[in-house]
Structure formats: structure tokens, C-alpha cells
């Protein structure tokens, strides 16, 4: 996908989400061919000519002033993440650093692996910008999945969510987990900086899962932060857990996710019971990777 195609796809998807009546436009005497605003309506709301906006949407505009960009962002009612994404697509803002090799998983430093192991029994895992699971602790294995038993290529949250049917039981609110996951992949995708691994992942999942393809086409954006997820485990039932996401600086987009329960809640009691099982079988590959980085 080229940068211009990505820009057109993004802007088209955003104006399709806006109800004309909600921005004060009168009913159109001409039947609408699709949802949302027409190009000329966005142009009018932004205070630019229809021809200018059409060329902007097609990626045929050179330098765009901040004033015009802000007007378009306001007309399309973009949130802060969408505004950042638009400016990245246009090239008026620096993009986040990408891993040195887009086809290779980034190395995880020993100190970070040690930290993740040290906070057990708090479930924690480290992910890359493509949702690759790069490191995890025993508690994460007990709570979510045995990532160590998976093939390295399968250690990916998006792949796991959409291709492993057990995740629909693990997450009672599966759709509310799956949609933001795809939106986070969308936010990580920059057509101006080709990423072969991400494009391959999206292509494979789009073919294998109609739901993934639908979420991807919706062009929603998401950045992991914090919130609550309901997670089911056959031993203790459903738990309502808080997740916190720590984005690591100067890491090429790595982020750490950790799960806790409210103090004194039934979910904390269930989580404590689950984590009191004791050690799981040793993840030999995970341990080998860590030893090889230490040597």
C-alpha cells in the first residue's frame, strides 16, 4: 500500500463515520451513495475548495499548512491519535522509530526479562508494535496461554486471538478485545515506511478471518493504555482484571502489559488462588534465549 493510498483510505473511512445531521447539515435532496459525509461537505466544513480537498484525499498535495490540517481534522472530528496518524501519513510529523530490521523480532535486553520474571505473581508480558509476544512470566502463562509451547511465529496476540478458538472462551467479551487489537495494528502501520512482517501478518489474518478483515477495513486506531478486561479461567471462573500498559522509550515500539485485580475484590481472591498453583513447566526456549543473551 502506498502512502497516498493509505491517506485516501484513512480520510475516506473517517468521513464515512460522520452523520451529516450531527454536524448541522440539512437533508440532501440527492440520495447518498454511501455512509457519512461527501467530499464537498468535508471541504465546506474545513473551509477549503472541493478540488483542494479532493487532491488532499488522493495524496496529490505537497506541503499542507498546519492551519488547513487543523481545519480538516476538526471537520472530520478526529481524536488526538487520529490527528497524529493523519500527520504521519501526510509526512508533517516525525514517525516513531521502527525496529532496525522489519522482518526480525527485536531483541529483549536481559534486564527487562529479569524484571518481568521478578514481578511474578503479577501476570506480565512484553509485546512489540506488531503484537508479537517477546517475553512473559509464569503468571502470564497461567492466566492467558502457554506462549512457550507455541511456535515463535505463533506468539502474536492478534494471531492468537483470531486463529485460536479457545480465546473466545478465555475472553467473555471477545469482540471488545479483538477490535482494539486490530486498531492498534492499524495505528502501528505507516504506508510510508513499509513493514514486510506487519503486511504479511495482516494479509494472512485477513484471509483466515472475516472478522479481522472487517475490523481492518473499519480503519479504527487504538493505543494500549489501561482499562479492565474480563478473563475466564476454567479453575476459578471469570475475573475482572485491570491492565496497565507501559510504553518503553527508545525501544522501537515495545510495551509491557501487566494485570492486577482490585484489592479485596472477588477477582483478587480468584487470581491469588490461580497464582498459588506453583511453578509451571520450565519454558526451555525462553530460558535458553535469556542465557544466550547473558553470555
TrEMBL record:
Domain spans labelled HTH cro/C1-type: 32-83
PROSITE patterns: HTH_CROC1
Pfam family for this entry, one: MLTR_LBD
A GO molecular-function descriptor: DNA binding
Protein name according to UniProt: Transcriptional regulator with XRE-family HTH domain
